[in-house]
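This part of the workshop introduces the protein records we will be handling. To make this concrete, we reproduce a full record directly below:
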Amino acid sequence: QSPTPSLTSEPNSIMLVPAGDNYTMVDFATAYFRDAQSTQRLKAMSAEKKSVADLVQHTKVPIQESLLQYSDSDLNELATKNFKTLMQFMGDQPKLKNQKEAECIYEILQLCKEKESLHDEIYCQVIKQVSHNPNQESVLRGWLLLNLLTGYYLPSNILMPYATKFLQLASSDPSSTHHDIAKICQSNLRKNFMYGGRRHLPFPVELEALLKGRSARRLTVLMPGGVEYITKIQTFTVAKELLQEICEKMGAGEQEEIQEFVLIASRSRATRPIRPEEYLHDYLLEDKLVTVTLRRLLWRTPLHFENQIYTDIHYGQILRDYLDGRILLGRGKEMEMEVGVLAVLQHWAKREQQSSALSREALNEYTPKSLHPSLRLQALESHVGTLLRTRQPLQPKEAKIQFIEQVMKLPFFGYNTYLVERVSNDTISVPCFFGVNKEEIIAVDSTTQEVSCIIPLKELQQMRILRPVSEGGLPGIELDYGSAHSPKAMWLELSQAKELYHTITAILDRT
């Protein structure tokens, strides 16, 4: 029976240190290397072990056949060619004319991407060339490649315990020059097993930085309310790790609450939530036009305001959504009173000294533009004037907290809302709002704010994005929901179709 990785009691995790001493690369070579088969016929055991050990140690000359046995001659040829590329990158063989180091790495990673059956072969080749290699510069380059290899591609279940044993032994020697990068390789392999590895090969700029010893990249995360969080991410940092880091900084370290936040990648008009298990570098393009923002997606856990950054971020997000019309208000006679209270709290939340009066221009800034046509401006101004005269002004932090608490009482708070232009359901008036929260998708009339359709998320069977039916048309989403006995379907068209699709997916991942 083929050896397989040992699983721990934790889900989606792998024990990277196999038990016992029977998982060395010499053991693997004895069982699986093509050249070891002939040495096994030797009677002298010590000579046999010495000969097999040579197979997993550095060589100065290129191999003439693949290390592993392949019945496909093309794979054997690709393997020997890859070994030459590996030696050229590591400096064990002269490079070709105009051949760059980054091109060598890219060629090897691309081969792994195209030929999964060569993963074990290439792992063995790199491990061989960093083992007992007298040239320290060559060793460092080999470990750099192994760093990338472990983050992108997994070895087979057969090789996995041997490769992980090799990394464990390499990382346990503090006197070695490569024990730190061996630990990084262990971490890469663990993430790769859990999350599937990076999807996109590194850009040339990223490879050049790695070759110069710069493994970290500076990243600015835009937070609600204009707060910027500046950090450094590694080659294989996943969104989950950065979310944990940011949330702990703002005093939201409990896992239940961390899961309610999401990082969002935006480029031009395209916006998409990054799933926790996705690698950040898969979103950060070379042109640096991608921005990463933080957003609270769900609102299950109670808010707490002992941390000023936490307060500012939540206030900034809720305020922006409110002013952009993404938090819907009821359209009854109480609307002017609600808008008035929220305007005064915004006024007090500003750091500068609050004046007793509030100009019409400022009042317009504190009010969602979508509400301007339906507001009775005179009634609103009168109500705001009364509030400013009769209430004691609040300090900015307390005003922000009260604004948050006031908005959270609104009937549609907690929904991520999108303006929809067309719907296949004739009973839904358009344009309308579609909102999704932790429990359901709703359609809300844009005029009356009445709910005209509810789709429980537990009834959602599948979704797919629809391309525009005509040039200049809007993209859409098709929703299949209901039960097996009563299946239903609906399509809707909106400019933010992809964002809505990925938002629903992100919420489903967290519920």
About this structure: The chain has four domains: 25-202, 216-296, 317-409, 416-509.
